[in-house]
Amino acid sequence: MNSHTQSSKPADVRPHVVIIGGGFAGLNAARAFKGKDVRVTLLDRKNHHTFQPLLYQVALAALSPAEIASPIRTAVRGQKNVEVLIGTADGFELDRRVVRLKEGIEVSYDYLIVATGATHSYFGHPEWAKIAPGLKSLEDATEIRRRILLAFELSERESLLEGIQRPINFVVVGAGPTGVELSGAIAEISQHVLKTDFRGTDPRRARVILLEGGPRVLASYSEDLSAKAQKQLEELGVEVHTSTMVTNLEPGVVHVGEKKIDAAVILWAAGVQASHLGKALGSPTDRSGRVLVDDRLNIPGHPEVFVLGDLAHFEQDGAPLPGVAQVAIQTGKYAAAEIVRRIGNQPSRVFHYHDKGSMATIGRARGIGQIGKTHLSGFPAWFAWLCIHLVFLIGYRNRVAVLLDWMWQYLSWQSGARLITGSDNLPGWHQHHAAEEKLPEEQKVG
Amino acid sequence: MNSHTQSSKPADVRPHVVIIGGGFAGLNAARAFKGKDVRVTLLDRKNHHTFQPLLYQVALAALSPAEIASPIRTAVRGQKNVEVLIGTADGFELDRRVVRLKEGIEVSYDYLIVATGATHSYFGHPEWAKIAPGLKSLEDATEIRRRILLAFELSERESLLEGIQRPINFVVVGAGPTGVELSGAIAEISQHVLKTDFRGTDPRRARVILLEGGPRVLASYSEDLSAKAQKQLEELGVEVHTSTMVTNLEPGVVHVGEKKIDAAVILWAAGVQASHLGKALGSPTDRSGRVLVDDRLNIPGHPEVFVLGDLAHFEQDGAPLPGVAQVAIQTGKYAAAEIVRRIGNQPSRVFHYHDKGSMATIGRARGIGQIGKTHLSGFPAWFAWLCIHLVFLIGYRNRVAVLLDWMWQYLSWQSGARLITGSDNLPGWHQHHAAEEKLPEEQKVG
Q1: How far, in Å, CA of A360 to CA of A353, rounded?
Q2: Are B42 and B83 in contact (CB under 8 A)?
Q3: Is B177 helix (H, G, I), strand (E, B) or coil?
Q4: What residue spans in chain A does CATH classification 3.50.50.60 cover?
């Protein structure tokens, strides 16, 4: 194993900041170093930043991957003091101030920012991942897109060639923002897409079933907004089942206690766990693997190490901050500013999160929002959501492209991204549905 | 195995045309049936038509997959007499007029159109496919994009962390239109991308090596245009080696007789073979598997079976027609018209190909074209190429999107599609280059 400094030029004496992760937290930290007298290395496994709040639109074929992702290099192109490296961090030697990469090399740092986010949690059932994909990356989104579109295609083939009209059940597990957005959008697309594009498939056969273990949807919102969200989902035709725990998954079948639900597609939006790099820091973590940080986002004994965004467990007002983009962005900007303060021997400040509100969208013109004491729902919430997401999307070009696409779709109900790509292996003719029998109405849960 | 008619309604007595393949030939045939009193079933393994002439731009991250592909359903949405089915044809029973699908069902027809095109030929070395991908599908294009972008990323990492400045060799095998377009575009992107996006990589280290077994590039064009194309490639920095046969491929190494060329990326554009469905028709084929058809594109003894596009071997003026989009489009339109004539008891006509000219593009503002006796090269050829490809692109929305993207790139040298997606497995640190030594200049071929 070789140890190297970051550059072959020996003269660089600027403090070296290594940022791991090019998500909202890492990218915002890197950008906040603009013009500062530091050397920044931004390390990520992938070459692009993904705008996660719009991933579900890629999964629903409303947007293309390139519209919601931006190469990290492009995002920091204007900053001479940032180097971008593709690589997989897999460990630390905090005493030597070194990050180990999987590729067998070490990168040394003066300040370290760890912002590798979170991934799906299948509650101890990793084998469910193949049955019910979650939605965290572009690859997840195109896989989900493939499964949803194939479900319609296989149903069409079956009804045209065999005269069989079977229900097409989409089961979404988990009614947080992702589950709500996915199920609302599937309900809408299936009504409209099926009507215009498919000849042999009756749109009323598509059912969207949203299963939530807790007592209400969007539990991080107030109770009145939760109720409004559920009502809007039901208006779109989504069957919402709260207090309903999934006990097992098999291909094509969701178990809810004794009951079984046949499913053409199962999607997972039920839980997240922090990136495994959190544990590699050797510092205490919470149950979902988030690293406990102090009031400056540092870990105990290491004021040069910052943990940000979804990977951090930061308590404010008695509760940990939620895993949302705003938290990631604010922790990123804070960490950069705090490092600059320390380098310049300026007074240190503690981190404080300013809640600018949160919103979730439901289908094409519905949503809920909570901004301070103001509660929005319906069209105003949806429109506010739309504007805010356009503003925060990285890259001027992406904003224009997404805006044009949204306008086009809003006016025409069409989309140009409805591609099934990836595996050439179509599901077999009779493997697609686990059971041959028609699904009886009584199999509905709840 | 079940045999089914195409619809559960027994009253449909219209002649049933089954088209296999949604490429240029099959899609144009389907569209030419618009308003005619036939029932058309368009069958494809994929749900989208791919505009193959622009695939290389997806491979070079200039365009996104969704911009050059169109769901087949969308492309025939306006036609009430066309049903689209996703499935894999794997055999025929011509006497019973039945197509067998891999999925274990049969589709019967009155007229059959087989237009499943061509794929890569590795000249008896299928193991080379993984080492040197070809360019026929969206999946191929995103895989090539991944390899090209990763080559730059790994070089950047190596030079920043280890101070090693190694040549980045891109070897393209085959100097037909695809090989010429790929190598010209790689040469251009590497000069410009490396300059603006990478800090540690010297652009002059990128070498593009184009290997052609025959005596000249773009051999289907006249000798003067071949020479002009080679000159334009060399102006872009491509090292062109004609009469150079590749004798073996290993990961990262191209063998040319006794010589070895280290390669960060190897791309295959050297040969095509017809789809295996051609042989399944049981009719004579040529050396590359194309089905010999008569003057009406039928196979012997089966006037109800048409073979079109790249899958057909049709002789005109003493030579088989080339595997280009124009041939596919014209055979598609002819077959539909001929079927309509036969159903209406109108006089049959023979097929005749009208050569409207051909063109190839080289980089951002160069190209060659041959339109009748007019030979174009340089900027006029490139501009004509651009207009024609915009016109032939399927779908109004795609045309607008591609035009906007091209304008944006022409003005800014930027591109928003530079994503590395797919496999999470980055090549290992020291596996990327086959040899550790620097590549000596003498290893250049030719």
Answers
A1: 20
A2: yes
A3: helix
A4: 2-45+87-121+272-343
What pLDDT sits at residue A64? 87
Reported ipTM: the value is: 0.83
Q: What is the CATH number of domain B128-270+420-443?
A: 3.50.50.100
More confident residue, A413 or B102: B102
B48 and A88 within 8 Å at the Cβ level: the answer is no
Q: Which amino acid is at A427?
A: P
Task: Tell me, yes or no, if A399 comes closer than 8 A to chain B by beta carbon.
Answer: no
Mark yes or no for CB contact B197/A74 under 8 Å: yes
Contact between A132 and A173 (Cβ < 8 Å): yes
Tokens of B344: 């209406």
- Measured between alpha carbons, how far is A327 from A333 in angstroms, rounded to an integer? 10
Residue extent(s) of CATH 3.50.50.100 domains in chain A: 128-270+357-432
Nearest chain B residue to A199 by CA distance is: B83
Burial of A165 (0-12, 13-18, 19+ CB in 10 A): middle
Q: What percent of chain A has pLDDT over 70?
A: 88
Nearest to A137 by CA among A121, A150, A120: A120
- Residue in the block written with tokens 């493939």: A146
Domain with CATH 3.50.50.100 in chain B: 128-270+420-443
Cβ separation of A86 and B154 shorter than 8 Å?
A: yes
Phi-psi region of A419 (alpha: psi -120 to 50; beta: other; left: phi over 0): beta
Chain B residues with CB under 8 Å of A145 CB are none
CATH number of A2-45+87-121+272-343: 3.50.50.60
* Contact between residue A277 and residue A285 where contact means Cβ atoms under 8 Å apart: no
Helix or strand (DSSP H, E) at A292: strand A291-292
Measured on CA atoms in the order A427, A428, A429, A432, is the torsion positive or negative? negative
Shortest CA distance from A108: residue in chain B? B161
CB proximity B119 to A under 8 Å:
no
Which of A156, A161, A419 shows the shortest C-beta gap to B105?
A161
Which residue in B181, B212, B239, B338 is the catalytic one? B181
Q: For the purposes of burial, counting CB atoms within 10 Å of the CB of A353, is it exposed (0-12), middle (13-18) or buried (19 or more)? A: middle
pLDDT tens string B426-444? 443 333 333 333 333 333 3
Is A4 in contact with B162 (Cβ distance < 8 A)? Answer: yes
User: What are the pLDDT digits (tens) for B282-307?
Assistant: 999 999 999 999 999 999 999 999 99
Averaged pLDDT for residues B199-222: 89
Read off the pLDDT band of A412 (50, 70, 90).
low
d(C-alpha B330, C-alpha B304), whole Å:
18
Structure tokens at A358: 């949160």
* Residue from the list B67, B419, B429 with its beta carbon closest to the beta carbon of A105: B429
The CATH-assigned architecture of domain A128-270+357-432 is 3-Layer(bba) Sandwich (3.50)
Start-end of CATH 3.50.50.60 domains in chain B:
14-121+272-343
Length of chain B, in residues: 446
Q: Kindly report the average pLDDT of chain A as a whole number.
A: 87
Of A77, A197, A416, the CB nearest to B66: A416
Active-site residue flag, B223: no
Which fold is adopted by the domain B14-121+272-343?
FAD/NAD(P)-binding domain (3.50.50)
If you search the block for the tokens 């989208």, which residue do you land on? Answer: B48
Convert the pLDDT of each residue in A296-353 to its tens digit: 999 999 999 999 999 999 999 999 999 999 999 999 999 999 999 999 999 999 999 9
What's the pLDDT tens digit per position in B144-195? 999 999 999 999 998 888 888 888 999 999 999 999 999 999 998 888 766 7
Which residue has better confidence, A101 or B197? A101
Instruction: Give the whole-angstrom CA distance, residue B266 versus residue A116.
Output: 33
Token pair listed for A322: 């939620």
pLDDT at position A43 over 60: yes
